[in-house]
User: Which sequence fits this backbone?
């Protein structure tokens, strides 16, 4: 891909956030059609991995990087795939099978705040006063959204899965940062190898525990669209926009996903949002944006990974 102009990059990045937001609606449609959550996720990312095969193998530089990977590199990228794809994305699909999309969206958007706190231990990065304000806003918004706590017993499993997604996605962000600090690795190689490992693990776990159900033609269409357009294409396009946009600009554009998901869930899934919940979402969005901007300035990877 060529370097896009600034305006073109902004428009492309907005398009990517919209595609990633529609993923939540499409996932809910597939789950409502009784697609097993883990197998559904495995099929999405497995097919996305296959779409990246010609992209990677058709690039001489990427082929050379793949051939130079050591056993230690493969172990690190495999572990990243386990955490980022198998755990984080598997948890997202499972949580969406129990909880409304807006609720899962709010919980998973706490990841940048958790990353900020984890970086204190992992990277010894001292949070600024502004960053602590973002943490407090995010936690306060979560309390506003959920209190008084009224989650039926059957939904606690979904909430637990969402929290697993939050912490695994946060850990994967820091692991991805470490991987991208390796000068002999490219972002595409990191994504390609980790996605291959992670999707393979999800497919194996899904087949052993849930099977694959009986996907209809519509279900296969959803899986194909999620894999080809919302994962492989959107990831490639997002990485292209990073050539023209600053990390802070990309972070701000990425924050558009939270209101987009809430709007799409209301339009297509019939999920209503009360004024209290809307206030909670707004506080979380403000907190996430403050913390995320700080993280970007600290050069955490601005990655269009497959977490959407």
Assistant:
């Amino acid at each position: 891909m060529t370097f896009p102009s600034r305006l073109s990059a902004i428009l492309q990045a907005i398009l990517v956030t919209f595609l990633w937001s529609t993923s939540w609606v499409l996932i809910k449609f597939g789950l409502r059609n009784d697609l097993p959550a883990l197998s559904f996720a495995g099929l999405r990312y497995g097919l996305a991995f296959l779409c990246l095969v010609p992209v990677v193998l058709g690039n001489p530089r990427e082929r050379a990087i793949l051939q130079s990977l050591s056993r230690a590199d493969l172990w690190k990228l495999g572990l990243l795939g386990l955490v980022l794809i198998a755990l984080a994305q598997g948890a997202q699909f499972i949580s969406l099978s129990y909880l409304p999309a807006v609720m899962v969206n709010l919980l998973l958007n706490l990841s940048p705040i958790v990353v900020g706190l984890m970086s204190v231990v992992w990277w010894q990065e001292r949070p600024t006063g502004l960053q602590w304000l973002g943490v407090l806003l995010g936690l306060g918004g979560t309390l506003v959204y959920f209190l008084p706590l009224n989650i039926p017993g059957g939904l606690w499993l979904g909430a637990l899965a969402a929290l697993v997604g939050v912490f695994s996605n946060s850990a994967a962000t820091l692991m991805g940062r470490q991987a991208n600090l390796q000068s002999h690795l490219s972002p595409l190689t990191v994504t390609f190898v980790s996605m291959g490992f992670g999707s393979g693990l999800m497919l194996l776990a899904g087949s052993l525990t849930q099977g694959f159900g009986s996907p209809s033609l519509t279900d296969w269409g959803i899986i194909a669209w999620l894999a080809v357009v919302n994962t492989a294409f959107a990831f490639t396009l997002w990485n292209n926009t990073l050539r023209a946009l600053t990390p802070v600009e990309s972070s701000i554009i990425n924050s558009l996903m939270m209101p987009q998901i809430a709007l799409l869930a209301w339009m297509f899934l019939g999920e209503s949002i009360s004024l209290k919940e809307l206030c909670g979402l707004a506080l979380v969005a403000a907190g996430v944006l403050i913390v995320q901007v700080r993280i970007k300035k600290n050069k955490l990877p601005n990655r269009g990974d497959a977490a959407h």
User: Anything to note?
Assistant: Residues 299-306 have pLDDT under 50 and may be disordered. Residues 67 and 304 are 24 Å apart (CA to CA).
